Amino acid sequence: MERHMTVPFGEKETSGLKSGDYVYLTGTIYTARDAAHKRMYEALQRGESLPFDLKDNLIYYMGPSPAREGRPIGSAGPTTASRMDKYAPALLDLGLRGMIGKGRRSEDVKEAIVRNKAVYFAAVGGAGALLSKSILRSEVIAYDDLGTEAIRKLEVKDFPVIVVIDPEGNNLYETAIAAYREE
Q: Fe-S hydro-lyase tartrate dehydratase beta-type catalytic domain: which residues (predicted)?
């Protein structure tokens, strides 16, 4: 199924998503990679607040290349999501509605997705230049010293993703492999 969704969104919107759905996101998403996740996790451990409200928001695992003149951002392809797996369950439990990346997720992340009625989307790896065309604005909002790994607030329009793990725990990477083996 193909869907157009405005972000941020809540449990009501994720409940209708199914593994394998094509989704076009419009609205606000945030970026964070390894170093930013580590800092957020450490801030939580110290009882500090995070640089943005996780509630019903999405984090895109991406560190862009420099923007060309006249563009808000450079190439904006996804990074491997499993590198954030040790931090993701805690963030999901605090209200994060979903993540965008590439690659498999751990069983702990899958359980947290189901527990929180969240979603894991994949963006197409290797298509960073194409994905950047869906990004209208980019603003560093935290951890500027991390360079490309700083947390950014992005405004996107029709940003293309695929539901990999839906709120019921269905995992496209597993079902697609099983379907391929049956053929």
A: 11-175
Q: What is the CATH number of the domain that holds 146?
A: 3.20.130.10
How many domains in the chain? 1
Q: Tell me how far apart the alpha carbons of residues 69 and 131 are, in angstroms, rounded to a whole number.
A: 17
Domain boundaries, position 110? 2-182
Distance CA 59, CA 54 (A): 9
Q: Cα 89 from chain centroid?
A: 13
Mapped onto helix, strand or coil, the DSSP state of residue 37 is: helix
Is residue 175 helix, strand or coil?
A: helix
For residues 84 and 60, the answer to whether their CB atoms sit within 8 Å is no
| Helical (H) or strand (E) element with 112 | helix 107-115
Total residues found in the chain within this entry = 183
pLDDT band, residue 183 (cuts 50/70/90): low
d(C-alpha 40, C-alpha 50), whole Å: 6
Q: What is the pLDDT of residue 125?
A: 78
> pTM for this one?
0.94
What is the per-residue pLDDT across 90-120, written as a single tens digit (0 to 9) for each?
A: 999 999 999 999 999 999 999 999 999 999 9
